[in-house]
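Student: I would love a firmer grasp of how sequence relates to backbone shape in proteins. I am handing you a single protein, as its sequence and its fold in token form. I am told such tokens are a discrete way to write the fold. I hope you can help me see how the letters and the tokens relate. Take your time, and here it is.
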Amino acid sequence: MDEEDAPVTIDADEDGVVDAVTAQMSEHTSFIVLDQIISATAMLFTAQRIAAEAHRRGIRFLVDGAHAPAQLADPVGGLQPDWWVGNFHKFPCAPRGTALLVIPPEGGQDGQDLWPLIDSWGFADPFPERFDEQGTQDLCGPIAAPESLRDIERLWGWDVVRRYMSDLADYAERRVSEAASEVGGEDCSSPVRIPSPAMRLVKLPHGNRTPQELDALCPVFRDRILNELHAEVAVTQFDGELYLRLTAHAYVTADAIDRFAEQSIPTIVGWLRG
């Protein structure tokens, strides 16, 4: 569902998200793709309640949990989706391109109607074996992902890491929004009421640029921040507003957040005014 089809406002609470999404369901709805954590807004969707309503109506649904693995302790728990997919090259720190597909072991999809986009030697095998031999498929990611999860658990423990990420994300949102507000001369605090544990938004002043102009600006500014300021942040737009999306992990420190707020934010706001 896009913004026009499902008008979930950025300041919606849990009830508002559920109401907005379920209001789009009808007797003609047969399939739903639901983001678990929204990339553009860092919002944590109330997936369990939406999934329950989809189940009640007999609607099949796929949960896009790209940012959920490791950021959420149990991203699939309570969902019972027909399909759930999540990326392991984000918070679990596995190699790029590593992902996980989950289907219910019983009572739902058995996987026999799932096929790889590129068939190879295993085309005649049942699911999931038919996905195992796809010619030049790089198996480094699937092999490394369990080791990455175990190493972080061994070094710090995932519960400790998740608490650290959430606390640091809170600090980053407050520190960076204060800096942007001071330099930009307007309130740059985040309007998001249900943020994900380790991701936060900070609003950026952008003048009177249109949403189309902001869409074109986002990748340019992301690359410029990386190449000139040596900081990795996402630049997103939603409903005509421009945002920095900040992400915390075990390797991010409060000192790094302070430097970004003090040194980079004035430069970024200056670019937007130029």
In short: The chain has two domains: 14-155, 158-273. Residues 158-184 form the longest helix (27 residues).
